[in-house]
Write a structure and sequence with these properties.
about 65% helix, 4-stranded mixed β-sheet, mainly alpha, single chain, elongated, 10 helices, 4 strands
Length: about 290
């Protein structure tokens, strides 16, 4: 689950920083100087919302490498690394995309793919996954991640995040303006006060969490599609089913929260915020595909 939670956390942090910076620069005062200018606010929200999402996308690969300690295989040092590089290259050719970078990181069984474009993608697997699965199962996991790249899931996710960011920023400032006006004393200077700034930051956080439910819903849908893509690359769904059965039965540790939605192993206690369906649901979908 690494990639998406990393993307979501990075996006939320960027949105908060951009929002606070805009307030310090007086943008909020401009938007509310003569009453709330909804047209200008919508334009501002769109620029901030999509800007934050695309900055998150641009940073996704370097942050993923940094948070996991993933080591890109430049020159294979052993047979396993050579097999990984060759397997991903072959799968990328079948999927019709440039070969992604291939990396290994220390950790419990998991894997992820990330990158801003199909031409600059990364597929990473953990040492735990390599030691706990057969070659066919690891190959299926790699095919799943390659399918994510081929499907352009990160770009699609960015566009969805940009839309929800826009509404978060817009609604947060509408609510902040209403609260600020309610608390304003008669005769007080027009323009946003402290109540506006505090309320907008709080609403950015709260509405951002609600927006994460929408993004998580899309993330769950894309997992089914990537599973089907892996089956197509492999020529059969059996290795993917076997990999999911093993993932569902082993004690895999979660990826860092900011990357959790990118990993092969997913699920979670809070279903609405879970970036992955359960392994059981994914297996059932593959068997009925």
């Amino acid at each position: 689950m690494k990639r998406i939670l990393l993307f979501l956390a990075t996006n939320l942090a960027i949105m908060l920083v951009l929002g606070i910076t805009a307030s310090l620069l007086g943008v909020d005062r401009y938007l509310t100087a003569k009453g709330l200018n909804l047209g200008a606010l919508l334009v501002f929200a769109g620029l901030m919302g999509f800007g934050g999402a695309f900055i998150s996308l641009w940073l996704s690969k370097p942050i993923a490498k940094w948070t996991t300690g993933a080591r890109v295989i430049e020159q294979p040092a052993n047979a396993t690394e050579r097999w990984l590089v060759d397997t991903v290259a072959d799968q990328a050719r079948k999927a019709g995309i440039p070969t992604p970078e291939v990396a290994i990181y220390e950790g419990a069984p998991n894997a992820f793919a990330t990158g801003a474009t199909k031409n600059a993608s990364l597929v990473a697997v953990s040492t735990g996954l390599l030691t706990s699965m057969t070659h066919d199962e690891v190959e299926a996991v790699l095919a799943h991640e390659v399918a994510h790249v081929a499907n352009g899931d990160m770009v699609t996710l960015t566009l969805i995040q940009g839309v929800v960011n826009t509404f978060v920023i817009f609604l947060a400032r509408v609510v902040a303006y209403a609260v600020d006006q309610f608390l304003r004393r008669d005769g007080e200077e027009r323009g946003p006060g402290l109540a506006f700034t505090i309320t907008s930051v709080v609403c950015d956080l709260l509405f951002g969490l609600v927006a994460s439910i929408i993004v998580a819903w899309f993330s769950r849908k894309r997992e089914y599609r990537a599973d089907r893509g892996a089956a197509q690359i492999m020529g059969t769904p059996r290795p993917m089913i076997a990999a999911l059965q093993r993932l569902g039965g082993i004690d895999h540790a979660d990826l860092p929260k900011n990357l959790a939605a990118s990993g092969i192993a997913g699920g979670g206690v809070l279903a609405l915020f879970s970036s992955h369906p359960s392994c059981e649901d994914r297996i059932a979908a593959l068997r009925h595909a």
